[in-house]
Recover the amino acids of this structure.
């Protein structure tokens, strides 16, 4: 178990302790304040170099990682894979060695293969590796920013601050994850974060979109999706990942929407306080109805906004922190 | 132990024996009162003064200083709290402090900022604070008030208002709170 990510890599949330997650959320709280200032920049990572390496397309993750690094005063090397030597057949290992030779302190990696981030961390042990999504495996910062968003909303409602509440508001919180769990790294990171923080997590999906080893997951599968909607405090929708072939796992998109989409009729069953989340990009009209996405309890834009402070916290702790130090 | 002292003594996980109390709560309260009068005297009025307490050791003293200035002048003095974690130059050398939140709700341009902290030691916290302040505007002047000045400066920084000068050795730790000041010596090394 990782008790703090200081000076460490962030590859997965699977073996990260509750204390470590709370430390990240609390640090992000300080960065929310930095992002509200007129001068949104602190010198914490001045002189450090962060390389961002995205082998898959991404809008919000890449932009928010790069924004985060810049607000910490780090220099950002951004590799546009589509126009790089990768297109000439350069291997991941050689690309990493090349970037490393330029002198970097951290690499933010998005890759289509599960385990790519772990592999890179072995190539360059002196560089901090932050996983920004690897295949079907993990997307740790998404799990963290989702937990952060939930804590922020619940602490506002309770009239307290996120810092004061620690992990308290997660205890027994009922979280329902819906949709393409099988192909979703977001689901894996979300579930790890929520379960570690003490939530009661259930998943709802057509049998074909459940992972084959679901019985080993710390979650239960709901029988009746409509009933589960009434049960849930938080509904986390997942994108149907057509680029990973999800389309062939359901008879038709229309049928998926009929059975597991959050349609307007279904959204009416939710309690008014239930938080609706989606990691984006949304397939409006498939897993979420366009009107539902714009409801006040749908916090999708807030998730995006929280991406910057969470990624600042992760970069700050992993790059500026060191493993040996005393935790004060 | 105050956050300040934790940074100043990286080996703070080693045993420190609490040796003795150097100031009582009455001493602290008298010192703060005197400093408040000095602040008013030197600036003539409190109208343009902003009190900024440094997280986390300076918070209690800043709050108390604000109350005292209000008692003396009858006017409300704005108080802000400043966390300098992200501005330190020793992030990779010392234990990373637990970051706290900055709350400054007014523009500091053209104001007289009085930084308040518990213990002044190397001066590196103050250096970080001066850098941080520039992100909130351009104060007309910045003054420094500390309850305890324990010496060992590593930068050309000196306080404007001091509660007590305490010559210390490097293997001693100072704890300063509203209810007293204690000194302890590292044992077993």
């Amino acid at each position: 178990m990782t008790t703090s990510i200081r000076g460490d890599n962030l590859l997965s949330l699977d073996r990260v302790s509750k204390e470590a997650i709370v430390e990240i959320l609390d640090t992000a709280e300080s960065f929310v304040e930095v992002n509200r200032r007129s001068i949104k920049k602190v010198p914490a990572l001045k002189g450090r170099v962060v390389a961002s390496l995205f082998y898959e397309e991404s809008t919000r993750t890449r932009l928010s990682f790069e924004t985060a690094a810049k607000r910490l005063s780090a220099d950002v090397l951004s590799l546009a894979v589509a126009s790089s030597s990768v297109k000439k057949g350069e291997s991941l290992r050689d690309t990493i060695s090349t970037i490393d030779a330029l002198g970097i302190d951290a690499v933010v990696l998005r890759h289509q293969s599960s385990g790519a981030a772990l592999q890179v961390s072995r190539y360059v042990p002196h560089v901090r590796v932050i996983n920004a999504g690897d295949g079907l495996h993990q997307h740790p910062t998404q799990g963290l920013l989702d937990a952060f968003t939930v804590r922020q909303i619940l602490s506002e409602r309770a009239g307290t601050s996120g810092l004061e509440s620690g992990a308290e508001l997660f205890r027994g919180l009922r979280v329902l994850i819906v949709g393409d769990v099988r192909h979703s790294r977001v689901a894996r990171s979300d579930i790890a974060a929520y379960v570690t923080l003490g939530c009661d997590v259930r998943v709802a999906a057509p049998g074909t979109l459940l992972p084959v080893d679901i019985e080993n997951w710390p979650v239960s599968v709901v029988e009746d999706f409509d009933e589960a909607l009434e049960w849930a405090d938080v509904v986390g929708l997942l994108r149907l990942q057509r680029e990973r072939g999800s389309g062939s796992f359901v008879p038709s998109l229309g049928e998926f929407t009929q059975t597991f989409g959050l349609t307007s009729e279904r959204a009416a069953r939710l309690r008014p306080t239930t938080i609706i989340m989606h990691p984006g990009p949304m397939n409006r009209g498939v897993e979420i109805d366009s009107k539902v996405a714009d409801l006040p309890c749908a916090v999708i834009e807030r998730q995006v906004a929280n991406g910057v402070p969470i990624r600042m916290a992760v970069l700050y702790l992993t790059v500026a922190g060191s493993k040996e130090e005393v935790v004060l | 132990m105050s956050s300040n002292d934790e940074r100043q003594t990286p080996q703070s996980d080693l045993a420190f024996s609490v040796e003795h109390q150097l100031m009582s709560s009455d001493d602290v309260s008298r010192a703060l009162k005197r400093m408040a009068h000095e602040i008013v005297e030197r600036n003539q009025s409190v109208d343009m003064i902003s009190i900024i307490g440094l997280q986390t050791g300076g918070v209690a003293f800043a709050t108390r200083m604000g109350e005292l200035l209000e008692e003396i002048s009858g006017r409300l003095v704005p108080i802000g709290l400043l966390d300098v974690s992200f501005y330190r130059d020793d992030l990779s050398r010392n234990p990373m402090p637990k970051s706290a939140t900055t709350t400054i709700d007014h523009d500091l341009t053209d104001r007289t900022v009085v930084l308040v902290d518990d213990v002044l030691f190397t001066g590196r916290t103050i250096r970080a604070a001066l850098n941080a302040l520039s992100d909130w505007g351009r104060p007309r002047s910045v003054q420094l008030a500390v309850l305890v000045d324990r010496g060992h400066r590593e930068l050309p920084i000196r306080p404007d208002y001091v509660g007590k000068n305490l010559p210390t050795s490097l293997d001693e730790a100072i704890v300063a709170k509203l209810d007293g000041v204690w000194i302890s010596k590292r044992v077993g090394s």
About this structure: The two ends of chain A are 19 Å apart (CA to CA). The longest helix of chain A spans residues 300-320. Chain A touches chain B at residues 6, 26-27, 29-30, 33-34, 37, 39, 41-44, 72, 163, 316-317, 320-322, 325-328 (CB under 8 Å). Residues 257 and 286 of chain A are 5 Å apart (CA to CA).
